[in-house]
Amino acid sequence: QVQLEEIGGGLVQPGGSLRLACLVSGLTLDDYAIGWFRQAPGNEREGVSCISGADSRQTYYADSVKGRFTISNDNPRNIMYLQMNNLKAEDTAIYYCARATQYTTSQSAYEDWGQGTQVTVAS
After folding, report:
1. Fewest C-beta in 10 Å: which of 16, 41, 49, 61?
2. Quick one: residue 105, left, alpha or beta (phi over 0 = left, psi -120 to 50 = alpha)?
3. What pairing do the DSSP bridges indicate for beta strands 117-121 and 46-52?
4. How far apart are CA 15 and CA 88, in angstroms?
5. What distance in Å separates the CA atoms of residue 14 and residue 82, rounded to the nearest whole number?
């Protein structure tokens, strides 16, 4: 059974940092792409970043997080990370990870969503 679990959310001040982790079980990261998405209250879920499990050089970042967020994977441990620096109030959202059978930025291709982890950026 494939399961993804997000951990690492919390409350942080503007300008601060958090590292989210997506714990993956039931599959091998080498064979899939993992994406991070977020949903703020009243907004639709949006793509934040994704990475190919087979080629970590294949990455995508939403314009709103470029230069501040970094996605990476630890394939032997089946964990994928999202390092978030210089956080802003507008980054406040529930963050989710999900997997796709191939590298894609299309949200509809992702499945096996985790429960999400809350990130709140406030002073």
Report:
1. 41
2. alpha
3. unpaired
4. 6
5. 17
